[in-house]
Amino acid sequence: MVNANNPSHYKIIILGVFIGLFGIYVKQFVYHSMLVDMIGWAITIIGAAIAISGVMRVLKD
Q1: Tens-place pLDDT, residues 16-60
Q2: Which of 1, 24, 33, 55 is the least buried, fewest Cβ under 10 Å from its Cβ?
Q3: CB 55 within 8 Å of CB 19
Q4: Nearest residue to 41 (alpha-carbon basis) of 53, 52, 30
Q5: Rounded to whole angstroms, how far apart are CA atoms 43 and 60?
Q6: Which residues, other chains included, contact 60 with Cβ-Cβ below 8 Å and sequence gap of 6+?
Q7: Phi-psi region of 22 (alpha: psi -120 to 50; beta: other; left: phi over 0)
Q8: CA-based end-to-end distance of the chain
Q9: How far apart are alpha carbons 6 and 19 in whole angstroms?
Q10: Chain centroid to CA 1: how far?
């Protein structure tokens, strides 16, 4: 059984946070258009989903 202190769980969480922050960066600092905003939202949601899945892996173990 894998324990909750496994570093791979936390690497997934950090990766998700960085992806989410990149999505926020795209939405805030790149030229504002509907397409760029939608791409930024999509990246942010993907990053949040990755981070949440990492948290769920920690809670499961």
Answers
A1: 999 999 999 988 888 778 888 899 999 999 999 999 999 998 888
A2: 1
A3: no
A4: 30
A5: 26
A6: none
A7: alpha
A8: 8
A9: 21
A10: 26
In degrees, rounded to 5, the angle at the alpha carbon of residue 31 between the alpha carbons of residues 41 and 22 is: 40
Residue at 1: amino acid letter:
M
Query: Looking up tokens 């939608």, which residue turns up?
Result: 38
The whole-angstrom separation of Cα 6 and Cα 1 is: 11
Based on C-alpha coordinates, what's the Rg of the chain?
14
The 3-class SS string of the chain reads CCCCCCHHHHHHHHHHHHHHHHHHHHHHHCCCCHHHHHHHHHHHHHHHHHHHHHHHHHHHC
Q: What are phi and psi of 60, to 5 degrees?
A: -70, -35
